[in-house]
Amino acid sequence: MRFMMLMVLPSGHRSEAGAMPGAGEIEAMMAFNEELAKAGVLVDLNGLQPTSKGAKIRFDSGNPVVTDGPFSESKEVLGGYWMIQVQSRDEAIEWAKRIPYLGDGSSVEVRQVFEMSDFPAEVQEAADNSLVKESLSQGSKA
Predict the structure, then answer these.
(1) Is 102 among the domain residues?
(2) How many domains does the chain fold into?
(3) Cα–Cα distance between 130 and 25 in angstroms, integer?
């Protein structure tokens, strides 16, 4: 089972102002990331730039409306994620509980990723796209 562990930060978090984490924070996070890798459960991970460098696209009445960041109406923002592959939800939660301290008001949301086998046969057939599969198997080219 794949799970995303989403780092959720309060909107006023220092990272939103562009402040970089200190060396000690990075060392603690890298030690955690290394534990995930050594356990063979790490699939992917990344931190996210501040919302000031992003955009939000809302679909009102079917029409996309683009709003440039920062997103002042947001109470929380995503700061990063880990994608892990584990045997159960409980195991994913146990890993999330080991994430180094992220700061007051921070949290980690654990969400299971849908697998194609979760869907009925007709949905699997409708979603079968060789170009998309090939692109995913090659990974990011950026």
Answers:
(1) yes
(2) 1
(3) 41
Please give the residue range of the domain that contains residue 21. 2-114
Q: Does residue 33 sit within a domain?
A: yes
Q: Is residue 60 part of a domain?
A: yes
Let me know: does 105 contact 9? Beta carbons within 8 Å.
yes
Residue 24, helix vs strand vs coil: helix
Q: pTM to 2 decimals? A: 0.84
Beta carbons within 10 angstroms of residue 103's beta carbon: 13
**Exposed/middle/buried for residue 77 (C-beta within 10 Å: 0-12, 13-18, 19+):** buried
Nearest alpha-carbon partner for 37 in 49, 26, 29: 29
Q: What is the pLDDT along the chain (142 residues), one digit of tens a residue?
A: 999 999 998 877 777 777 788 899 899 999 999 999 999 999 999 999 988 899 999 998 889 999 998 887 778 889 899 999 999 999 999 999 999 987 778 899 999 999 888 888 898 888 888 888 888 888 755 5
Task: Read off the CATH number of the domain in which 67 is found.
Answer: 3.30.70.1060
